[in-house]
Amino acid sequence: MLSYRHAFHAGNHADVLKHLALVQMLDYLTQKPAPLYVIDTHAGAGRYRLDAREAQKLGEYREGIERIWGKNGEDAPKPVAAYLAAVRDMNPSGELKQYPGSPWLAKRALRASDRLRLFELHSNEFRLLAQNFKGAGRETQTTAGDGLALLKSLLPPPSRRALVLIDPSFETKNDYANVLATLKDALKRFASGTYALWYPQLAKIESRQLPERLKRLPAADTDWLHVTLRVHAPATDGMGMSGSGMFIINPPWTLADALRESLPWLTQKLAQDDTAKWKVETSADK
Ligand code: SAM
């Protein structure tokens, strides 16, 4: 039984990191004329109202997007400014009222020849996703179902160019093993795809071991990038998310520099205590 709903968390520090990287990747991958497939295995509802009861209940966006919005973002490094421009497209008045999910950010970046495939397992979330993308055109397809299991049916894509975003809610222990098994299988089917996995920094062992296990997945000559942003020290009871990370296989070559340019500024803005820190490591550093 799934209970996670992204509407309670939209625009938090984890979304900021994930969507900053996503906007950068989309920008790079849509520069080549060949069609791009974007596959979002865990799409959520696609977009969120920040004045809704859900977002207001925890107010997580106040420690995320709101900290870099408007005047607070005026001196943002270029890659962050590109991400903020995407969020501003959803808030043309300048007032922060809505927050884009990954499907909306992908849709915004894609060209008519590209394809967007969105999967969502939770029936209520899927209903909202389908509503939000009604009339989006034939190039966008929403599917109710398990994005991890269904990914294999799309690989390799006809154009041999794809960005796969894997953004689970990590509600169960199995999510960690499932993600590793799915990536392993996906790399066998389509080794040159760009795979971007988001994960939470939690005290639990599965979360702490995940990055090292991910580094062992791709072949030795495959590029990867690992970025983390911690916003506060882990709670003493071991509960809660102190930060998050993304592990990207076959990242655009521009991504490491873009993140290294952005994260010192972003960490300063999003820090909730003086243990906040960031890291970007790549296969090239080894
Ligand atoms: N990617 C979205 C974004 O950036 O806006 C947020 C996604 S949210 C973190 C995770 C979503 O995955 C939830 O809506 C949850 O219902 C859904 N979900 C969980 N397990 C799933 C699965 N196996 N397949 C597809 N969706 C799943």
Radius of gyration: 18 Å
Percent of residues in beta strands? Answer: 15-25%
CATH architecture: 3-Layer(aba) Sandwich
Order of helices and strands: HEEHHEHEHEHEHEHEEHE
Q: What is the total domain count?
A: 1
* Name given to the CATH homologous superfamily: Vaccinia Virus protein VP39
For the termini, the CA-CA separation is 41 Å
CATH topology: Rossmann fold
- Number-wise, the strands total 10
How are strands sequenced across the largest beta sheet? 5-4-1-6-7-9-8-10
Catalogue the ligands.
S-adenosylmethionine
Kindly describe this structure.
The protein has 286 residues and is α/β, with parallel strands linked by helices. It has one domain: 3-Layer(aba) Sandwich (Rossmann fold). It has helices spanning 13-29, 53-58, 78-90, 102-109, 123-132, 147-150, 174-189, 205-215, 255-270, and strands at residues 37-40, 47-49, 98-100, 115-120, 140-144, 162-166, 194-201, 224-230, 243-249, 277-282. Strands 5-4-1-6-7-9-8-10 form an eight-stranded mixed beta sheet, sandwiched between helices. β6, α7 and β7 form a beta-alpha-beta unit. α1 packs antiparallel against α9. The N and C termini lie far apart (41 Å). Bound molecules: S-adenosylmethionine. The site of S-adenosylmethionine has 22 residues, from β4 and α6.
